[in-house]
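User: Can you help me understand a structure? I only have the sequence.
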Amino acid sequence: MPQLFVCHASEDKAAFVRPLAHALKAHGLQVWYDEFSLKPGDSLRRSIDRGLAQCTAGIVILSPSFFAKEWPQRELDALFAAEVAGRSQIVPVWFQIDFAAVASVSPLLADRLAIRSELGINSVASKIAEQFAIPAKYSSSQLAEMVDSGQHLDLYAGEAFYAGCQYRFLKLNAFKEAYCALLDEATSGLTEEQLEDFPSELDRRLDEERERLRQRYDIPREVYLTMDEPVREHHLGSYRDAIGEWSSGTLSREESLRLVRDLDLEELDEYYILLDVPNFAISREQWPLLERYGPDT
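Assistant: Let's start by predicting it. Here is the structure, written out as tokens:
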């Protein structure tokens, strides 16, 4: 499953990086971006280490601000190392910069085919998504049948549907809670220097634990699955209520959109929870079908 790490300077967030990250997620891609992946109290360095270790590609936003700062270039160094090791690849995007400026700082980067921001956010996101196409697990007719099965249910079928939605929500949250506890325990004795150069053996062990937990909670591989902080107990009730109203068809369109957005911000696979259709089981071409019948209708 491709996971993209967005490497950027903070000065470029508002004008370009933030809308690009949202556009990439709209293409069904799994994106590590600090505003998606960091929660209050998180260790910035530890979270970035996880993102870099697990990504299959680095989307590097090259700009004057990028080359003026040390931190994003250190992230780029890590992405280069992962590329040399065959674990990742780098996709450069030029933002408010030209060939001469890139070449004056990094001839290696200037020599790579880059995507130019002048194309527009949506075009840039589409060009990136084309490189990481997700094969469809279901045909469009199968997908429509799966989604339609959750519409216009009678009393007992509706109760079963609600129980399924709640169960999927809770098991995704349980996975995140268990993994975060393991991660905190595994890294509690490490120094800042050790976290910066994350031990490869520990990284492998955490990957094994992640897979064990995925199997323990019976989560399909096609589910959008992250290791960020779970929804805490004092917020569980509001989510259960909203999911119950949505599954019974009594949630308004505006409230449905808010529920989808909130689940997305919590880094939970909203379509898996609400429709039992994992995010990565569908291709981008099928998304209009899903959106037509999905939770925002």
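Now, to help you interpret it: The longest helix spans residues 155-187. Confidence is low (pLDDT under 50) at residues 38-44. Let me know which part you'd like to focus on.
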